[in-house]
Amino acid sequence: MRRRSASALLPALLLAGCSSLGHQLRHITGDEARRLADDAVIERDAWGVPHIVARSDAAAVFGAAWAMAEDGFGEVEEGYIEALGRAAYYYGEQYLADDLVRAAFQVETLARAEYAREPAAGKRLLDAYAQGLNHWIRMHPESPPRVVTRYEGWMVLARARRAAAAQPAGPLRRGEVALLAGER
Fold first, then answer.
1. Rounded to an integer, what distance in angstroms lies between the CA atom of residue 70 and that of residue 53?
2. What gap in Å lies between CA 82 and CA 59, rounded to an integer?
3. Residue 88: which residues within 8 A CB-CB, separation 6 or more?
C-alpha cells in the first residue's frame, strides 16, 4: 500500500465543501496561529464558495479548516467524533459497535504513528489544519465543541482513515463486535 504524505492531502482539504462571507483572519491569539491567519485571506464568491489566497501551504490549510468550520462546525466535528471512536461517549450505547470497529482497526494508534513518521513539512500542514479548527473554536464560544475540545495534527490522519474503518456490511451483533475488538 502506498503511503500519502500530508502534502498530498492539501488539494482535498482545499476542495472540501464550504460557504459564508469573505474576510481576513487577523483576530488570532498565539504567535504561530496569528502568523498563519495573517498569511491567509478567505474571499467568498457569489455562491458562498471560499477562495483562499495564502502566502504558504500551511496558511492555505489553516484557512481551509477555518472556512470548513465556519460553514458547519457541527459536521466537521461529527467526522472527528466518528473517526476517533467517540460516538458512544456522546450519543450513547447504540454507537458502541461503530466505536469498537474503529478501535479494532486501531484508527487512533495508526494515525499517531503515521503522524510521527511524517516529514516536518507534512506535519506543518496537519498542524496548521488543526490550528485552524482550534482557532475557530476559540473565536466562537457560543458554539462549544461537543466532544473534541482541542484538535491535533494526527487527528486529520485519523479522519482520513475513517473510511477504511467503516462498519462491515450489515448490522453487527454484540458477539461479533467483541470478536472484532479482540475481546474473545
1. 17
2. 27
3. 94, 95, 96, 98, 99
Q: Which residues of 163-181 are buried (b: 16+ CB within 10 A; e: fewer)?
A: eebeeeeeebeeeebeebb
The pLDDT of residue 133 is above 70: yes
pLDDT digits (tens, 9 = 90+) for 78-96: 999 999 999 999 999 999 9
pLDDT of residue 101: 86
Our CA dihedral for 12, 68, 33, 83, rounded to 10 degrees, sits at: -70
What is the pLDDT, as a whole number, of residue 36?
A: 83
Q: Identify the pLDDT of residue 38.
A: 79
